[in-house]
Design a protein that fits this description.
This protein has one domain: Alpha-Beta Complex (Sufe protein. Chain: A), CATH 3.90.1010. It is 50% helix and 12% strand. The protein has six helices and two strands. It has a two-stranded antiparallel sheet. Helix 2 crosses helix 3 and helix 3 runs parallel beside helix 6. It is globular and about 50 Å long.
């Protein structure tokens, strides 16, 4: 069962918030060399870094980290959903899936905007990799 499915099965706000903190601790930390301005996501209240790299010319490996435990939990949900997918699969991912799971219901508006910013960054990265794979200009 995916982290998002587990999250959506929890009965209430407190359980969901606690779960986000718990799964946030499972993220592999980025190295200090990866915590650069280039890997910083703008639009987030807390500092968020995201590294998305094309592997074997067809899948994107995603790693992310924040200084905030709750944001790390949100990042863990996204990484679990999107890591290892192709660029086209990431582009097809609908943010409504997060809404339907109740993710945005436990977030402040600024954190919800930050989560959307991370997803937007991943979709832009997926677009670039898709065009590179097809020898197209972006």
């Amino acid at each position: 069962m995916s982290l998002l499915a587990q999250f959506s099965s929890l009965p209430g706000y407190a359980e969901r918030y606690e779960y986000l903190v718990e799964i946030g601790r499972t993220l592999m930390p980025l190295t200090s060399a990866e915590k650069t301005e280039l890997n910083t996501i703008s639009g987030c209240t807390s500092k968020v870094w995201c590294v998305a790299q094309l592997e074997n010319s067809d899948i994107i490996r995603i790693r992310a980290e924040s200084r905030s435990q709750i944001i790390n939990g949100m990042l863990a949900l996204l990484v679990d959903e999107l890591d290892g997918l192709t660029p086209l699969q990431i582009l097809a991912f609908d943010e409504k899936k997060l809404m339907q799971a109740g993710v945005f219901a436990v977030l402040t508006p600024t954190r919800a905007n930050g989560l959307s910013a991370v997803l937007r960054y991943l979709k832009i990265t997926a677009t670039v990799y898709h065009h590179q794979n097809n020898n197209e200009r972006v």
